[in-house]
Amino acid sequence: MDTPLSPSEPTLALQLEPETVRCDDAPVGYTVINYNTAALTLRCVVSLSQCDEPPAWIVVLDNASAQADFDLLQRSLRSVPNSQILLFRSVINLGFAAGSNFLIDWLLRFRDCRFVGLLNNDAVARPGLVRGLREALVAGGAMAGMSGGRMHKVKQPTEVDTLGITLYASLMPADRKSINDPYLGPTGGCCLMTRAFVEDVKATTGYCFDERYFCYCEDTDLVLRANLLGYRPVYVDELVALHEGQASSRGQYNTFVAYHGLRNAMWMHWKLIPTSLLVRSAPWLLLAHLLTIARQVLSGRLMLLYVVYRDALKCLPVILAERARLRPVFRVRGAALRNVVSGRFYRQGYAAVVLAEWKARWFGHRKP
């Protein structure tokens, strides 16, 4: 299901190749996407170039940032050592999914590129990131496909940000916060993939990331397809990066995050979750929707709920057609997913976050 990115594809704005590009016999390329956060993007790219095994290539997409932000990024990238830098500029915001697909396809143009990595622009790579994730993929064998590691928070380096993705009993995906939760796969914010896996998932399912999602849940969609194709992504329990968290969306749970998160989760369920698992988890999934509705209503987002369910249902025929198209290409039975679904209803600590949000909304403006 390859679709045009936009009426005008991103254009190459900057290409820099240092005198010496340090890489091993299995060259790695990384993708980074910028949207009005040039300083963070530069910090991310520099941290990648300073890894003990720096990527041979770092390809960066500016996703229609303000001109001043893009100019700062373009100037600053000229001083990055060790890796070949390619900077692309898009005149419209393609989102994470389409933007990543564009950059991944560019890396595949380099015949020597054996591994493709993604790192959020508000993340800071630790020195062992590239080496650790690459070695895990090699040790995991051909059917590992993807690897991810431990990410902590930039401002609280001892606190977990994400340990990958967990699919909970409610079938709602979320950041994995404990190594005791099942590991579905890495987040799109920090992962490494083999070239063979990328080419396989594109050839069998038609795309790497589903561009209809724009952003949020597109990485869960990818790792679910990986599992259904028989891959078993590997996890490295080492600190590989520090993460700012939702910098481009101003670090808030806002209507943009809520809309894309809920709509895309429904699309993912309809498109990929095997029927047997949907039936088995139906009571928990229904409860999750009821709690989500209650959260949004009590937070004053009634219109948001209407728009989310309207837009999700509007695409139901297309998503169901995609489900029918994909089902024959999957190589494992749907029951195999039960081994990577948590027995917990949802992420531990989530209720406290929601209660704090309600308290801030209803009582935060009142003086004691």
Question: Topology of this structure?
Answer:
Elements: E1 11-16, E2 28-34, H1 38-49, E3 57-63, H2 67-77, E4 84-90, H3 95-108, E5 115-119, E6 123-125, H4 129-140, E7 146-153, E8 160-162, E9 165-167, E10 173-175, E11 190-194, H5 195-205, H6 218-228, E12 234-243, H7 255-272, H8 275-298, H9 302-314, H10 316-326, H11 350-363
Parallel strand pairs: 2-3, 2-5, 3-4, 7-12
Antiparallel strand pairs: 1-4, 5-11, 6-12, 7-8, 7-11, 9-10
Structure, described:
The protein is α/β, with parallel strands linked by helices. It is 41% helix and 18% strand. The protein has eleven helices and twelve strands. It has helices at 38-49, 67-77, 95-108, 129-140, 195-205, 218-228, 255-272, 275-298, 302-314, 316-326, 350-363; strands spanning 11-16, 28-34, 57-63, 84-90, 115-119, 123-125, 146-153, 160-162, 165-167, 173-175, 190-194, 234-243. Strand 3 (57-63), helix 2 (67-77) and strand 4 form a beta-alpha-beta unit. The protein is globular. The termini are far apart. Residues 1-6 have low confidence and may be disordered.
